[in-house]
Amino acid sequence: MIELRTPTQIEQMRPAGRFVASVIKALSEKAAVGVNLLELDALAHKMIRDAGAESCYIDYHPSFGASPFGKVLCTSVNDAVLHGLPFDYVLKDGDLLSVDFAASVDGWVADSALSVIVGTPNEKDQWLIDVTQRALDAGIDAARAGNKIGDISFAIGSVAHAEGLKVNLQFGGHGVGRTMHGEPHISNDGRAGRGLKLRPGLVIAIEPWFLHTTDEITFDPDGWTIRSADGSRGAHVEHTVAITDGDPLVLTARD
User: Fold this and answer.
1) What does DSSP say about strands 209-211 and 234-236: parallel, antiparallel, or unpaired?
2) Exposure on the CB side of residue 211, measured as CA atoms within 13 A
3) Do 48 and 100 meet the contact criterion of CB atoms below 8 Å apart?
4) Are 4 and 200 in contact (CB under 8 A)?
5) 3-state secondary structure of 13
6) What pLDDT, on the 0 to 100 scale, is given for residue 129?
7) Statement: 7-250 belongs to CATH 3.90.230.10
8) Any idea of the CA torsion for 149, 188, 139, 16, to the nearest 10 degrees?
9) What's the Cα-to-Cα distance from 69 to each of 73, 166, 205, 229, rounded to whole Å?
């Protein structure tokens, strides 16, 4: 069921957005050569406790997961791009790290993701991150009352196709509110003018993710970590956005 939020409820969602943004920022600053993925998870866990927030991940168990997630953030490295289950791995120079984090504050959820290069910059990987960010920006700009869901999908996909990237349609954006995942689904490619009409009060997570040379994916035995089928690297970015009577409101903005 698609739910619309009142202006008061959207204001009530702002603390969750600010908190998630602060955690994503702290994780990106902590990520460095020699840091263990479990240290990043521990940092996010501490910030959740200190804020009196609740994790959306630790008990999460959809049909594709082999077990409840058990951690409080996703850490996807190099050819892993989504749902990376943190494990005992020490970050190396040149790793491409994507962190995805969602939490609930006072009963409202926000969800965000960011990709960074650890240590020495890599031109090819930075290009992929930049393209993915431009796709997110385009998707957010299309998230306006009167447009359709397909306009968001088309905006995202157009950026990818212009750069020669293929787009996987199995996972994409989604509604956000009292829970982390809700309706509607927002594909990262589609046709303009199609689908649900966007109305003020709709709150969604827009999250493009692209792989260098494929749109095919595989799952690790943990049932969670999603990797490129050909070993190429991936990037993933995400913001929680509210549709308003005017410009889109990015609840997880980090500036």
Assistant:
1) antiparallel
2) 25
3) no
4) yes
5) helix
6) 98
7) yes
8) 90
9) 9, 28, 20, 22
Task: Count CA within 13 A, CB hemisphere, residue 173.
Answer: 33
Domain boundaries defined on the chain:
7-250
Does residue 47 sit in helix, strand or coil?
helix
Tens-place pLDDT, residues 2-22: 999 999 999 999 999 999 999
Which pLDDT score is estimated for 64? 66
What H or E segment, with its residue span, contains residue 16? Answer: helix 7-30
Closest CA to 3 of 242, 193, 247: 242
CA-based torsion, 232, 192, 155, 19: positive or negative = negative
User: Nearest 10 degrees: CA dihedral of 195, 131, 22, 175?
Assistant: 10
Of 129, 234, 147, 235, residue with least CA distance to 184: 147
User: What would the two tokens of residue 45 be?
Assistant: 């866990």
Pull the structure tokens for residue 235: 């990037």
Q: Extract the residue ranges of the chain whose pLDDT is less than 70.
A: 63-66
Question: The sheet that has 173-175: what strands, in order across it?
Answer: 182-186, 173-175, 203-206, 239-242, 249-250
